[in-house]
User: Fold these one by one.
Assistant:
Number 1:
Amino acid sequence: MTEHRAATLSDLPENDPTEVAVGDRKVVLVRQASSVFAVAATCPHKGVPLKMGAVKDGKLICPAHRAMFDLESGDLLAPPACESIASYPVRVDGEDVYVTVEPDQPEHPLPAHAGRGDDPRRFVILGSGAAGWRAAETLRREGFEGTINVVTDEGPVPLDRTGFSKGYLNSGETPALRDESTVAKLGIEVVKGRATGITPALKTVNLDGGVSLDYDALLIATGCDPRKLDVPGADLEGIHMIRGMADADALREDIESRAKAGPVRVAIVGAGFIGLEAATNLNKRDGVEVTVVTPEARPLAKLFGDAFGDRLLSEHREAGIEMRTETRVTGFAGSRRVEALETEGGDSIPCDIAIVAIGAKPRTEWLPFETLQDGGIGVDDKLAVAGVEDIYAAGDIAQLPTPWGDVRIEHWRFAQELGELAARNMLGQGARYAGTPFFWSMQQPNGSYSYTGHAESWDDARGAPDGDSFQVEYVTGGRKAAVLALGFDDDLTKLTLEMAGTGPVADA
């Protein structure tokens, strides 16, 4: 145990995180009156420096992705982080602040959790994505000692699928949320397979291959599949979609194989989040020429307005990406392998590889009960499915009542929040959604954008998406429902807390 003099009280502005060196370790100090708290210097999610974060109501909040930690204990309070942050003992002697750091103390410890015990219950979770895996871990954090089966048709560890349209396309570094040793430590059993049916009266779920699992509570968190483009030539080789690692691997291998013969022309059909992220990242590869084709005049304008759509269009063109707007693909040309996109206007766009990124549909067609028109599952405020006992739904497929209305939101962090909520309700806690929808993207040419709140329509959009940082506020009914921003801002972080559980706030 080693104690270090870290700072003086007068050097620490109140509630303003300050990074200091304590021995060979960086630590963040936060002063509140005469008390000082010391925690790890970085967020475990993406390593963002917490000295840039905000402090409010005893919470330290990551500035980038809004993970929240208890300032005193370092305990994880909100996603997207999966680990807590270390908390270090502090001693104040007059003006001097001393911090004690154990040499072997992990900076990002696994949150306290139960292990497999004598509880005879079995909880089955269908899907190992953001919602499903978060639910499994939350069950252990809430003290559940029964069997947890996570059913997945992917690998033995949970993966961050958002990475497959981003850096993984270039680096090949697997975006795993957990390694196998941590999965084992948590006592979570991963079952390889895909659900094919549920018998609610018997409380059983059937998997492909004839496997059947009994359950005491069941969570459906199967997520979405990419939408296919139903046009002539859609079955040609060289046409890809992106959902999981196998899809991303096939795309990377195809690019690398084609690159041996010279420049690779990649055509991306669709200018949504996945399409634009893939375009930005593939455009960074030497010898890859990217064209994005969309029937819309401006990308994402329906979600964020024409001005932001114009900004995205300019950014991508300035980065060297060809943007073909107001262009509808009617087919793929080629004898065995794709050679071109055919368009409604009669143009032919040559390509060596095509990526279809035209949205996603809920993986719910196999369910024995009624789904919504868009394929989602309607749930109550506790995420329970009506008409069936002990069945819950979470993540991209769940439409639930919130202060923003009945919404089905395909956000990664929102899915994690719903996974936590579902786990607590599977344990009978009667919890309701008390967060704020938030996402960040998009790894665009000039930075990552964030979106706080939710607005499917708006009366007024205040602010302009200009410059190196901006905020656009979406106002409806005299209340601020959402904010689109570029850049970190403490006010936006605090808005997340203000909206949590209450929804749109009064417009100033």
Number 2:
Amino acid sequence: MAILLTGATGYIGSHVLQILRAQGRDVVALVRDESKARQVEAAGATAAIGTIGDRGLVEQLATDSDGVIQLAAPGDGSDAEVTETFVDAVLAGLEGSDKPFVHTSGIWVYGSNADISETSPLDPPALTAWRVPLDERVQKAEGVKTTVIAPGIVYGHGGGIPALVAGADQVDGALQLIGSGDQHWTTVFVDDLAELYVLAFDLAEGGSRYIGAGGDNPTVHELGVAAATAAGLEGRVVPTTIDEVHAKLGVPFGDALLLDQQARGTSARIDLGWEPNGPTLVEELRSGSYTG
């Protein structure tokens, strides 16, 4: 039997797959097509071609697995419906087995908060409001060892949302910020986050929830200065208005990036022995890893 992994060719999932294979563990990766199948097979996984919205296939794969790690999302506006279908299938396939199911949420469900913990009140922006009832359902599922992971803004190796900071428009020799730049982003290095998923799969208790945050919470202004330094602009940045953010990124996504959030990820360290030790996002941006 093997671990069923979705999103294995994606930004986070590819790092999770790398860790699992380095540990000598068998993985079945659910992928959409033959090209992605070849990619995961080259990494040592067994490919199953299909989609996370194929309930029958997902239920059978879950039943045949040692447990499930979920990282895939359609990203096409159907996330809520398709992810709900996937969760239905996984819970049906694992019902009564007490096998682990690690489900992905996100830090934005907590809204603006200067000290987010797992028990903080939820205040999601419109973009992620659909996650709240689904996360709750996963946590309360019986007969399955469920864990919900809420990652911060993921970065590293030039990937993730921070590429928007480094690739922002320049105005009069200054890099445009996302908003005023006063808001904090709670962040996590992608390699560290991948380790958290594996630890949660192995060690977390059923019904648990963990914030995936490395503990560094820079302001967007600090990120912009680092990116502008790497771009040869001597750290020069310029703020933008909320209307400008909405015009460029859309209202739902823009509002999420304007949230002011800080978190430490303490519970995962205490309960699971997680030790995030990657570079900070400021260091990554300043090093030029996001400049191409």
